[in-house]
Amino acid sequence: MIYLDEERVRALLRWDDLIPAMQAALADFSAGRVIQPVRNVLTIEEGQRYIGIMPAVAEDVMGLKAVTFFPRNAGTDVPTHLAVILLFRSDTGEPIVVMDGRLITEMRTAAVSAAVTKHLAPPDSRILALLGSGVQAAAHLEAVSRICPIREVRVWSRTPEHARRFAAKHDARAMADAESAVRGADVIVTATNSQDPILMGSWLKPGAHVNAVGANRPTWRELDDEAMTTGTLVVDSRDAVLKESGDVILSKAPIYAEAGEIFAGTKPKPPPGVTVFKSVGIAAEDIAAAMLVYDASMNG
Q1: Which terminal CB of the chain, N or C, has fewer other CB atoms within 10 Å?
Q2: pTM of the model
Q3: 230 C-beta neighbours (distance < 10 Å), count
C-alpha cells in the first residue's frame, strides 16, 4: 500500500479531468450504482470540533474518507477541514492506497459546483460573486472560470481584511457588503461557516445561479427562505441534505432534482429562472477523485 501526501496529490489532480469525473460520479450515485450511507458525523463540541466518516462502494473501487471539521481553526494556519482517504480493491477488499484528503475535498467540492454551473447557469455568465474568502472561494474561482467566461470577480467576507487580501491575490473586487457583491451577479458562491443567512433572495437577479457549499450543519444557514424557495433547488444527495443542511431543512424548500439526475438526463434542466445548488459533499465524489489521483500515480 502506498501513501500520497498533499504535495503529490496536487501534482497529480487536474481540473480538466476532475470536473467531468465528478459529473460521472454523481450520475452513477443518482442512478444507484454507488452504495454509500449518509456521512456519520460525531460532534465532539458543538461549533468547535467534529469528525466524519464517509464510506462508499462503486463498481470499480471501495473507499473511505475520514474528515475532521474544526471551525475554531478559522483564521489560523491550520485548515478548518482535514482528511485522509483510503481506497480498497473491490474484488478482494485489500487496501491499495492512502492519501491526504484535504486538497481532494477542496477541489472536488469546487469541481462539482463547476459541473452543475455548466448545466444550470446562463452560458454567458460573466460576473462571479464569492461570499467567503477562504480555500473554497479560491477553488471555486478556478473551477467556475473553466466553465464560464468570467470577466468580473467580486468577493465579500465577514472579515474585510480577508476579502481585501483575496482580492489582491486573485484580481478581484473586495466588496463592502454581501448585497453589493451579489446584486447583478450571474453566478454566486456561498462558502462560509455562517450559522445565519448571509444571502437574501431579494438580491438575486433573474436567472442567477447559486452554488451553496458552506454551513453544512442541520441548524446552520447561508441562504434565507426567499433564496431557497423562489428558484429551483438542486442538491447532490437528497438523503444527505435532509439530514445535514440547515438551508434545506429549515426552509422546507422543495428539491427539484439531484445533480446526477440532470447529468444523466433522467430529469430535465429546470425552467429559466433562479437556480440554487446545495452541496454537502458525498463520499462518491471523494473516491472518484481519489481514483483519478491513484491512476495518475500508477501511470506517471
Answers
A1: C
A2: 0.95
A3: 16
